[in-house]
Amino acid sequence: MFERRNNVLLAISASIAIYKALEVISLLKKRDFNIRVAMTREAAAFISPVVFEALTGSKVYVNVLEELERVADTNITHVALAEWADVFAVVPATSNVIAKLACGMSDDAVSLVGLATKAHKLIVPAMNTNMYLNPITQRNLRMLQGAGYLVVEPVSATLACGQEGKGHIADVVDIADAIETLAYPKPFEGKKIIVTASATREEIDPVRFISNRSTGKMGFAIAKAARMLGAQVKLITGPTHLAAPWGVECIRVNSAVDMLREARKALDEFGDAIVIMAAAIADFKPVRHSDHKIKKEDKERLVIELEKNPDVTVSLVEHARSSGNNVRFVGFAAETDDLLENATKKIEKKSLEFIVANDVSRSDIGFGSEDNQVTIIYKDGRIERLEKMSKERLAFEILRRLA
Length: 403
Known about the structure:
This protein is of the alpha/beta class. It has two domains: 7-183, Flavin prenyltransferase-like (Rossmann fold, 3-Layer(aba) Sandwich); 192-400, Rossmann fold. The protein contains 14 helices and 21 strands. The chain has helices at 19-30, 41-46, 49-56, 77-84, 95-103, 109-116, 129-133, 135-146, 172-183, 217-228, 256-270, 312-323, 339-350, 391-400, and strands at residues 7-12, 34-39, 87-93, 120-125, 149-151, 155-158, 164-168, 192-197, 202-205, 208-210, 232-237, 249-252, 273-277, 284-286, 306-308, 327-335, 354-359, 371-372, 374-378, 383-385, 389-390. The chain has an eight-stranded mixed sheet with strand order 12-11-8-13-16-17-19-20, with helices on both faces. It has a five-stranded parallel sheet with strand order 2-1-3-4-5, sandwiched between helices. Strand 19 (374-378) and strand 20 (383-385) form a beta hairpin. Helix 5 (95-103) crosses helix 8, helix 10 crosses helix 14 (391-400) and helix 11 (256-270) packs parallel to helix 12. The longest helix has 15 residues, at 256-270. It is elongated, with a radius of gyration of 25 Å.
């Protein structure tokens, strides 16, 4: 598996959004990161460093004159922290600390470490919308991006000052995902990946449809992992409650025909690409669609005639061949019986590099579950059985076989 670096130095400045840093720490701890905290003196007036020490289990760096325990080859606090960190993340970042970092100033705990560290860097602005959109702040952010900082942009919302506008700190899950993204190697840097996910819906009337039990968790996990490993990712998904992974372009569709149309567009835009078909696409659709709700009072029996949907994967393979682009295809097979036999038939028919087969008759894996247990069948006939694992871990295992 791809080796992740685990040392995160969270740098905290004095924004009203400081409480979000506590939530980010909690999420990162659940993901098994090692976390230390540096705070400006002003931030320490908002929330006591003792709170952050309790959460992280490590002393918080606030006073630039004090020293921590020997961490590396030096016992100078900011240098030791700078060398310890794999990721340096400023959460939240005020206009003041952004300006200091952009100009190379180093007169507090946050700016000192920021200037000294060679870690991957991330900044999460949070401030009044006028301050954020001020040309000076925007210039400073561009300078930081030019210096290698990843900026997790704020969102538009009601701000603490009562104004509406862009400046509200980003969602904590997105912040944690962005930090984790910086912690991974980038074997897919420069590569483009298209992922399909979830079930499609084939409408009977305005309120009824034919679908299946797929929730999209596997496809979303693959898209998220691919982004963390450096790929440019388009996620084309059927209806689902899942939020789009950070940094992933998410295109939401309903029917199989919709999914095929958007996947073709993505292929035309990307050219050479990897396509991972994790969606549970409906094989059939109603021949006729009613524009009005079908009333049960009108009928004793309702017969719905179905016709085949286009095979989305086969159609995409043909589209890729006609374009002359180098496109690699990976498929999924959700089966309830004769797993290997049914999955193997699809490899040649769909021109797949390999297929990921799983038994969806089991309640502990597959549709709706957090876990999966799969068999990977390659086009040369090799069969590889994987142990039961989380879908997040399986996503990395699938991508490892494409790196």
